Amino acid sequence: MKKFLFLSFFISIWAMAWAQSDCILVMVHNLRSNKGVIRYALYNEKNEFANYKDIFKEGVAEVKEGSARFLICDVPDGNYGLCLLHDENNNGDMNYNAMGIPKEGFGFSNDARVQLSPPKFSACKFIKKGETGIRVKMRYML
């Protein structure tokens, strides 16, 4: 009986790990507040990066204690780029001041830097192979 319980426990753990092997674990740090949500847009090489219309996968994650952790699942192995928004007022959009400077936080995979426009896909590209985890630093201009 003990062998059966051990075997069924082992199989269930293996099945959970296998089921999540098509996921990307995203860990977001450097959030300035616990307000609002994190909105994400995942792009592959076939999508037009950072146009916020031609998105491979998108979603929303909770903010807890100055960080966020979430899974993006059903993602086949390949090259991807990730854009994040700390939507502090949860209105679904990036808010800007009168001079056009973002009032809310943003981040990109590989912690790619922003100049006067979003970074290129090549700067944000990461390889997803099996279970993949990435860290993204949230940045604020104001």
Q: Proportion of β residues? A: 25-35%
The biggest beta sheet, please? 5 strands, antiparallel
Number of strands: 8
The average pLDDT is 88
Low-confidence stretches: 4-18
Integer count of domains? 1
Provide the gyration radius in Å: 18 Å
Shape category: globular
Measured distance between first and last alpha carbons? 62 Å
Any idea of the CATH topology?
Immunoglobulin-like
- Helicity, in percent? 10-25%
The CATH architecture is Sandwich
CATH class categorisation: Mainly Beta
The H-and-E topology, N to C, reads as: HEEEEEEHEE
Task: State the secondary-structure class.
Answer: alpha+beta
Number of helices: 2
Descriptive account of the structure:
The chain has one domain: Immunoglobulin-like, CATH 2.60.40. It is of the alpha+beta class and 142 residues long. It has two helices and eight strands, in the order H-E-E-E-E-E-E-H-E-E.
Keywords:
142 residues, alpha+beta, Immunoglobulin-like, five-stranded antiparallel beta sheet
Blueprint of the fold:
Blueprint: H1 2-19, E1 24-29, E2 37-44, E3 57-62, E4 68-72, E5 78-87, E6 105-108, H2 121-124, E7 126-128, E8 132-137
Parallel strand pairs: 1-8
Antiparallel strand pairs: 1-4, 2-3, 2-5, 5-6, 5-7
